[in-house]
Design brief:
Distance between the termini: 21 Å
CATH topology: Alpha-Beta Plaits
Largest sheet: 4 strands, antiparallel
Structural class: alpha+beta
Number of domains: 1
Number of helices: 2
CATH class: Alpha Beta
Length: 117
């Protein structure tokens, strides 16, 4: 089994009225419940769009924590799900289910194992 990250950037969601977003709650939560029932669910969560953002940087040899994202960017992570599945095809299946449930695109990437020490 391998862990995969399914994620979306906030900008991929698009502009929609509040009613549209409310209409996506039930189908997107149904996918999460489907993942749990299949035994592949690890964790999922949406990021607060207007919440605090901090950057930690230790490249100078001293840790500096500042407010805000490190770099100006046109895309910011909106939410993610971690799944544990046997192969790429399974990961793509769940990414597709999540895209259907949410109503916006998702990307999926394998999470690399940490190096052996």
């Amino acid at each position: 089994m391998a862990q995969y990250l399914i994620y979306f950037n906030q900008q991929w969601v698009g502009e929609h009225p509040p009613e549209w977003f409310l209409s996506r709650v039930e189908p997107s939560m149904a996918v999460i419940e489907e993942m749990k029932a299949a035994g592949v669910y690890v964790f999922a969560g949406g990021l607060e769009e207007d919440g605090p953002i901090y950057t930690a940087d230790a490249t100078s040899g001293t840790v500096t924590v500042t407010d805000g994202p490190f770099a100006e960017t046109t895309e910011q992570l909106g939410g993610f799900t971690v799944i544990d599945v046997p192969d790429d095809d399974s990961a793509k299946f769940w990414a597709g289910r999540q895209a259907q449930g949410c109503g916006w695109p998702q990307e999926v990437r394998r999470i690399g194992a940490p190096p052996e020490l």
